[in-house]
Design a protein that fits this description.
- By secondary structure, this protein is α/β, with parallel strands linked by helices.
- Helix content is about 35%, strand content about 10%.
- The protein is globular, with a radius of gyration of 17 Å.
- About 40% of the residues are buried.
Length: about 230
């Protein structure tokens, strides 16, 4: 008996906690997953190794890593010689200096091109509520608008076979994401969230990403496998 072909989903995979959980969600939803990782000149380039490790662990057969030089634009602590904020009192209530100008807009556009080239109509991104309060390109309004633009500007859209943007973590807290990923068998030891990691797979413990990650495990009541400097 011939098996039924599954729909392909193209997942934007950074190697972090959120995108890895989104990948696991897509697989649990029955998609055949392919993944795209962007080497954009980020300060925390060790996340690229995390993405490769995650893709291998999750049996992603088609994982592409491509280079887009956003460091030449700058404007962010992740792509320029700007200090990464540490131990901020308010996380997620303003646009922090770690925002990379038009990053998700750029990434989703490339993801749509990748998906169209391989015949995938479903795009998956790990945007979530605790980011879109601070990052404008994680807002649900942005994701809906991008979906419309992608369907206007591609052959798939013109043929009525347009894209669907999935953001399965959008309304989850970090604790909710940790619980979901744990239930789906995610190995969070293989992920990197830190904006300025002191060593591969080691987290500083003080940047916004580290603090949200740590708080998520604590609130979820799940043992945190992350190695933090302090």
């Amino acid at each position: 008996m011939t098996g039924v072909a599954r729909e392909k989903a193209a997942v934007l995979l950074s190697g972090g906690l959120d995108s890895t959980t989104a990948l696991a969600w897509a697989q649990a939803a029955g998609f055949e997953t392919v993944a795209l990782t962007i080497d954009y000149g980020q300060r925390h380039a060790c996340e690229l190794d995390a993405a490769r490790k995650v893709a291998a662990q999750r049996n992603v057969m088609d994982h592409r890593v491509i280079r887009i030089d956003l460091r030449s634009i700058g404007g962010s602590a992740l792509t320029a010689d700007i200090a990464v904020p540490r131990d901020r009192d308010e996380v997620g209530h303003d646009v922090p200096v770690t925002y990379v100008p038009a990053r998700n807009l750029t990434f989703l556009a490339v993801l749509a091109g990748f998906a169209e080239a391989i015949g995938a109509r479903d795009l998956v991104i790990g945007a979530n509520v605790q980011d879109y309060s601070g990052y404008p390109d994680c807002r649900p309004e942005f994701l809906r608008a991008f979906e419309r633009v992608a369907n206007l500007g591609t052959t798939l859209g013109e043929r009525g076979l347009g894209f669907t943007v999935h953001a399965p973590l959008l309304h989850l807290s970090k604790a909710g994401i940790v619980r979901l990923g744990t239930a789906l068998g995610v190995d969070y030891r293989s992920t990197v969230s830190c904006y300025d990691p002191p060593a591969p797979f080691v987290h500083c413990g003080h940047c916004d990403a580290c603090r949200l990650r740590r708080a998520g495990f604590i609130e979820a009541g799940i043992a945190d496998p992350t190695v933090y400097v302090s």
